[in-house]
């Protein structure tokens, strides 16, 4: 992968404002390498237990989980892949025969909950309409993301992704949810120089309801040779990756 989905779908110059330590995370993963990180989420889930039955449905497809926990250790693994539209986002993801597919980065975030490990799976792709995140093992839920790099204030150099359209794939086609009911995803990734860690915050909210799910925490990340195993995600590679 010579260019990452973020680079392919974002206007030239936008990513130039990223903090230098974030460029490895949002840049291409070289052939034969994998991005690995590990850290701790200060919070995961929602205390609003009436949402949990819905989250349990999404948990079956490795999207979200019916929990509300603090200080959750986690690991993340980013791998370059190519996927076809509507293809699964798991290890078996492949474009249709004869189709080059979309450039993608498949992420697996494993949460070490008190009840046991659970893994969230998604694939970020560069598509004609922009950056799209396909969520879950089969990618049936997807979000078109607006990309911005913050240039002023305490979070200067951070990347912010905001969903502008949410699509559910069913019956062989994609169905865009009306804006009056569509959930909104806001993700912010920034680098904390003082703590020497990357910080992430994700909030899923809905009109008239507010926050439905969130996680936030910090981790260290490195692009390392792919040995086929989980590896030590917290180590720096040549001091260049946060």
Unreliable stretches, pLDDT < 50, 5 or more residues? Answer: 90-99, 231-242
- Give the integer mean of the pLDDT values: 87
Lateral strand order in the biggest sheet = 1-2-3-4-5-6-7-9-10-11
- The count of strands amounts to 11
Helix content: under 10%
Largest sheet: number of strands, sense, barrel closure: 10 strands, antiparallel, barrel
Number of helices: 3
- The chain-level structural class is mainly beta
Distance between the termini: 20 Å
Please state the overall shape, judged from the principal axes of the Cα atoms: globular
Q: Specify Rg, calculated over alpha carbons.
A: 17 Å
Residues in β-strands, percent? over 45%
Q: Give helix and strand order, one letter per element, not per position.
A: HHEHEEEEEEEEEE
Care to describe what's here?
The protein has 242 residues and is mainly β. Helices cover 7% and strands 49% of the residues. The protein has three helices and eleven strands; from the N terminus they run H-H-E-H-E-E-E-E-E-E-E-E-E-E. Strands 1-2-3-4-5-6-7-9-10-11 form a ten-stranded antiparallel β-barrel. It is globular, with a radius of gyration of 17 Å. Mean pLDDT is 87; it is low at 90-99 and 231-242.
